[in-house]
Amino acid sequence: MIYVKAFLVGGLICAVVQFLLDHTKLLPGRVMVLLVITGVILGAVGVYEPLQQWAGCGASVPLSGFGYNLSKGVMEAVNDEGFIGLFKGGFRAAAAGTSAALVFSYLASLIFKPKMKK
Asked: Which residues cross the membrane (predicted)?
């Protein structure tokens, strides 16, 4: 059942993003920033954590989950370390995911030989 929940929530997020890309003049970079900010706002309001617990990877894998993860890390670091936590918390919270993305994208570039579009 967790797979169905993850598929539905992740699919809904992807469908909303695709709608924004197809029917508005928003560029992909702005839509990605919008997703991150949405995750931060929903996390601050207290909505995103229950959604992530219910849907699992369907809510944590999209960019909105990345925004929520960053904001959660900053809030925890500020509570523990004070003002300096503003600068350290986001890095600590997102380090594993960002590192994995860099390593796997590098490995993929070695395997598939990327080329510039003309």
From this structure: 6-24, 31-48, 93-112
d(CA 51, CA 6): 10
Distance separating alpha carbons of residues 13 and 19, to the nearest angstrom: 10
Quote the pTM value.
Answer: 0.77
Cβ burial of 11 (10 Å; 0-12, 13-18, 19+) is exposed
Angle between helix axes 48-55 and 28-45 (nearest 10 degrees) is 100
Give the residue carrying structure tokens 């993305």. 101
DSSP 8-state secondary structure symbol assigned to residue 82: G
Assigned token pair, 16: 């909303």
User: Residue 76: CA atoms inside 13 Å, Cβ hemisphere, count?
Assistant: 13
Which of 90, 40, 29 lies closest to 64 in space, CA to CA? 40
Residue 72 near residue 22, CB atoms below 8 Å = no
Distance CA 7, CA 102 (A): 25
Q: Which two tokens stand for residue 10?
A: 């992740």
